[in-house]
Amino acid sequence: MSGEIPVSLARCTKLQELNLGQIQLTGRIPRELGQLTELQILHLDTNNLEGDIPTELGLLTKLKELWLFLNNLTGTIPNSLNNCTNLVSLRLSNNKLSGQLATLDLGQFPDLTALSLYENAFDGTVPESLGKCTQLQVLDLSRNNLTGTLTDFGTNFSSMRVLSLARNNLEGRIPNWIWFLKRLQVLDLSGNGFIGELPTSFESLQGMRNSTSISNLSTLYQWVSLNFKGQQQQVVYIVHSMTAIDLSENKLNGSLPPGLGAPRRI
């Protein structure tokens, strides 16, 4: 199947799931899809769709999954999506979307587990309303134009597994709550302007205290472009189950730790 999304789909008012991903669709997303008020899953990802995200999608108040990633969508995220309070997964990455993330009142999505907005042109700060999404497991805002510092909005992220804020223009110190994400498996803060010292150990990441749990961490733990200052002492001792360490594009100083030979899998 290819071509444009048929407007006639709007007559299927009992539809609960519409999956048209990866079939080379072109054209715009029909505003008439807002008539599918029983819809819970809408996947239009990995196509060649263009234009804006219709405000009418905010009428889909039962929607749990909205996947529009890997298209050529432009414009901003419509305010009307704040009405979709049952959202569990919102994936808009790899488009040409812009504007500030504050457009979304993220406090309206208490069940949100995945928010993926990477590879767009969003600007402004990381919204503090993210802190109300306490069920988040995946947060990827990388490769945008976000600025400012990170506040304490993440102190209740007890389920976070993937956190990527890479390749933005964030600055300041990395807040302590990041080191207390017990279930964290992937952390990428590369390509920003963070300052400060590396932690002397990752003991506060309690899910990584022994070799078994550490091995669940991403095989590439990136500290790229963090502009950290300070010693690397003890860091390598703790990550002895990792297969790669990348400390490139930094301003680290001091000597390499004498325990560099201790990791058995690098």
Mean pLDDT: 81
CA(first)-CA(last) distance: 46 Å
- Which stretches are low in confidence, meaning pLDDT under 50 for 5 or more residues running? 207-266
What's the shape?
elongated
Q: What would you call the structural class? A: mainly beta
Question: Widest sheet: strand order?
Answer: 1-3-5-7-9-11-13-15-17
List the helices and strands and how they pair.
Elements: E1 3-4, E2 17-19, E3 25-27, E4 41-43, E5 48-51, E6 65-67, E7 72-75, E8 89-91, E9 96-100, E10 114-116, E11 121-124, E12 138-140, E13 145-148, E14 162-164, E15 169-172, E16 186-188, E17 193-194, H1 211-214, E18 220-222, H2 235-238, E19 244-246
Parallel strand pairs: 1-3, 2-4, 3-5, 4-6, 5-7, 6-8, 7-9, 8-10, 9-11, 10-12, 11-13, 12-14, 13-15, 14-16, 15-17, 18-19
Task: Please provide a written account of the structure.
The chain has 266 residues and is mainly β. 3% of the residues lie in helices and 23% in strands. The chain contains two helices and 19 strands. The chain has helices spanning 211-214, 235-238, and strands at residues 3-4, 17-19, 25-27, 41-43, 48-51, 65-67, 72-75, 89-91, 96-100, 114-116, 121-124, 138-140, 145-148, 162-164, 169-172, 186-188, 193-194, 220-222, 244-246. The strands form three sheets. A nine-stranded parallel β-sheet has the order 1-3-5-7-9-11-13-15-17, with no helix packed on it. Strand 18, helix 2 (235-238) and strand 19 form a beta-alpha-beta unit. The radius of gyration is 21 Å and the shape is elongated. The termini are far apart. Mean pLDDT is 81; it is low at 207-266. InterPro entries: Leu-rich_rpt, LRR_dom_sf, Plant_receptor-like_S/T_kinase. It is a single-pass type I membrane protein. Its main location: membrane. Keywords: Disulfide bond, Glycoprotein, Leucine-rich repeat, Membrane, Phosphoprotein, Repeat, Signal, Transmembrane, Transmembrane helix.
